[in-house]
Amino acid sequence: MSLLVNDPDLAAVYDDVRDDKSETNWVFFGLASGKPDRLQVSGKGSGGLSEFVQQLQADTAGWGYVRMNMSNDEYSQRVKFVLVPWCGEAVGVMKRARLSIQISEVKNVVRSYHIEVPASHVHDLDEADILTRLRKAGGANYDRQTSAY
């Protein structure tokens, strides 16, 4: 079953999250009620990863997109984006199967992200762990000074 992702609101809120001047720093794309082939904006906010995680439910599925600020020191601030395929623990088998196929169509909307963090429980979305993964994905990491000698 193909997922309809042509609603202009989807692209608009995606662009809003990507805009450094916008306070919106996360969005959750879910399936429209009664229309499992239609993607919709199910939530958005400006409270970062912690606010995003609070709105996730065990019986819902969808895709989150989160803007995160990270730094190695006080002088280097960087913005990174995380795609969160969310499938709560109470989601049925058929819906789970559909989600694995629909992710490719969602990526037509959410085109740019640094890491993908699949989650089925809020504990899968630990901020410290995600920041560590973002640093590793970013290449050089100057947090630790180690010597090869």
TrEMBL record:
- Cross-referenced SUPFAM superfamilies, in alphabetical order? Actin depolymerizing proteins
**Regions crossing the membrane:** none
* GO terms, biological process: regulation of actin filament polymerization
Q: Which Gene Ontology terms cover its molecular function?
A: actin filament binding
Q: InterPro entries, alphabetically? A: ADF-H (IPR002108), ADF-H/Gelsolin-like_dom_sf (IPR029006)
Assigned keywords, A-Z: Actin-binding, Cytoplasm, Cytoskeleton
Instruction: Please state every residue range assigned to the domain named ADF-H.
Output: 2-135
Q: Which PROSITE patterns match?
A: ADF_H
Protein localization = Cytoplasm, Cytoskeleton
Q: Which GO terms describe its cellular component?
A: actin filament; cortical actin cytoskeleton; site of polarized growth
Q: Which family does it belong to?
A: Belongs to the actin-binding proteins ADF family. Coactosin subfamily.
Protein's UniProt name: ADF-H domain-containing protein
